Amino acid sequence: MAAAIIFDLDGTLVDSLGDIATATNRTLEDIDFPPLPKEVIASFVGNGLPKLVERMIRHVGLPAERHTELNKRMRAHYDAAASSTTVPYPGIPDALEELQAEGHTFGVCTNKPEAPARHILDALGLSRFFGVVLGGDSMAMRKPNPRHLLASFDALDSAGPRLFVGDSEVDAETAVRADVPFLLFTQGYRKTPVVKIPHTAAYDHAAELPSRVAQLLEVK
Q1: Which of 25, 85, 181, 218 is close enough to 18 for a disulfide, judged by CB 3.0 to 4.6 Å?
Q2: How many domains does the chain have?
């Protein structure tokens, strides 16, 4: 049975933390603030670029009124080098090839702005797998609002079962609110233990994805 599978991007398909951290620290450098460790910046990731900037501002003690200015700076830095160090997680291309050969269709639902999301997929040779890419600025809402995810499924126009694949608490909440089975990638950017994140099934490596999808479809 062929399924419609929507993937999160950052922390699920690709490891993009290096480029996100670089853009964040270049933004801080612009205003004469010292760089932050990558581990700290990782804690800002998950709800889109504006929220990341908001968390950065709060962390370094800047006034909230600077959000618009710093969001523009951050976006400019990120757009200039969104794929410098970003790479697919090990096994992702092969897993997508295998799933595609089985007839499954794919889309991306990410809180990253759509333009850099598409750029990353193009740069890494992954665009050919995805019929739909909805970013955090593609609609008036973003994850965890379930309408973001549901619109991604609708755009795929598939009559098959629906599955969502992600790595974070935000993704899990989105799946619950959308009433869609959730496959959790355990090696992404989650901030809490796996057992505390609602999920239908979990996997540690992309090589496990085809078998996990098959198991979920058998249950359905």
Answers
A1: 85
A2: 2
> For residues 204 and 68, what is the distance between their CA atoms, to the nearest angstrom?
38
How far apart CA 49 and CA 90 sit, in angstroms, is: 25
Q: Are 61 and 142 in the same domain?
A: no
Which has the closest alpha carbon to 183: 151, 216, 161, 160?
216
CA distance 181 to 172: 9
Same domain, 27 and 103: no
User: What are the residue numbers of the active site?
Assistant: 8
Question: pLDDT tens digit string along 145-186?
Answer: 999 999 999 999 888 999 999 999 999 999 999 999 999 999
Strand partners, 88: 14
In the chain, % helix, strand, coil (3-state, to 5) comes to 50, 15, 35
**Range(s) of the domain holding residue 145:** 4-15+86-219
Give, for 31, the enclosing helix (H) or strand (E).
Answer: none
